[in-house]
Prior knowledge:
The protein is mostly helical.
Amino acid sequence: MITHLDRARPYVLSLFRIVIGLLFTCHGIASVFGTLGREALPAGTWPGWYAAVIQLAGGVLVALGLGTRTAAFVGSGSMAFAYFDVHQRVGLLPIENGGEAAVFFCWTLLLLVFSGPGVLAADRLLTSRGAARGDTGTRRERQHLGVPV
């Protein structure tokens, strides 16, 4: 049973990354364009509008698996800032101050910084061309993830 789960891990990680990226993108779209039940934030307002742009751009990059670690790092940092600067003024705990989403995104994006995008990512398509030219780094990485090479 464990070996089946281990084989699925890189694909489930990719699915996890896609879902988190899409959810992060939805938050950005809602705040920038005033859709999905929210009013648009006035362009250039600090810090909300900038956070929304990070959510939109970072969410798209994370969902596609393009520059995942960098986009996730920036997104995670923006959510940590949002929690400590905006939410924690209201109360200490996320349940008290409405900061659950900020905490959730902060930690899930930080997890993606360290785990990487999984095997189904745009970055993998770009690096697989290098592997065809003899780059063994991709092969080693795939072996580490447990993906047949």
